[in-house]
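Title: Request for sanity check on LysR family transcriptional regulator prediction

Description:
We are preparing a figure and want to confirm that the structure record we downloaded matches what your pipeline produces today. Could someone re-run it with the sequence below and paste the raw structure tokens into this thread? We only need the token string, no images.
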Amino acid sequence: MTLKELHFFYELTQTPQVTQVAKELNISQSALSLAIKSLEQKLGESLFDRVGKKLVLNERGRFFKEQTYAHYVALKDAQTLFQTNQLAGRLNIAASKTISNYLMPDIYFNFLATHKEVSFDINSINSTRIIEQIVNSKLDIGLIETNLSHSNIIKEHLCDDELIVVTSDKNSPRKLFIDTIEKKWILREVGSGTREIFIDCLGDMAKELDIFMELHSFQEIKSILLKNPNTISAISRVAVEKELKDQTLFEIKLINIEFKRAFSLIYHKDKSKSLLFNTFIEFLKKSLQT
């Protein structure tokens, strides 16, 4: 069924004179009759009794109108939905754990508080999975912390970050060569941006690393570190700002090694850029760069 056929049908339910309705709609009588016949063929039912030159609604037609008119009105309203509010819509967004937990909550809240007709589907997964879902068009926007990319992905810089090495051992030296560290390493799982950056920066030295545990969240890692001074981890500075300030965790600077990285925005190269899409990205960049 088409909206045009339904429109003609509802008009005829108000005025059974085909000639008059055709004139009001500025179409020929034959075009009106063909549209109604097409609708009836699709339904497999006659909706009108043909009485002379009139089309009188029959019992099946009355039932059809009763069951469908409210939906038709809603569909007609939907045609003008984005004319009245260009920012209405739902965005499907996924961010890596660091970005999701420590950067995005206020940004999501502030944007939604300003734009009442917008909603988000928010996911927090590792960067590798975000890239996979963007490639498969399952996400509108991805926020990642890895250098990995894909030929079908557009990648834009958001802001810079730094990984640091921390322990709860207050007596540990504050500067060390990595191969002199005898503590147990607690790292994020394979596929996380934090882990990938750390391992990539170490190069061949990563093979000698004593990785004792792999966990899926920074909270889990911090919990282990705080209870076990003989453990150590590489973690985003933004994730341990409070612990560093409270001196429950302590930074160890690795001699001759720095862990710099960028947080990036990604989306599919064929993604249509609506006003909502562009407005949120602009808001996101501005929020992270202030």
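Thanks, this matches our download. DSSP finds twelve helices and twelve strands in the chain.
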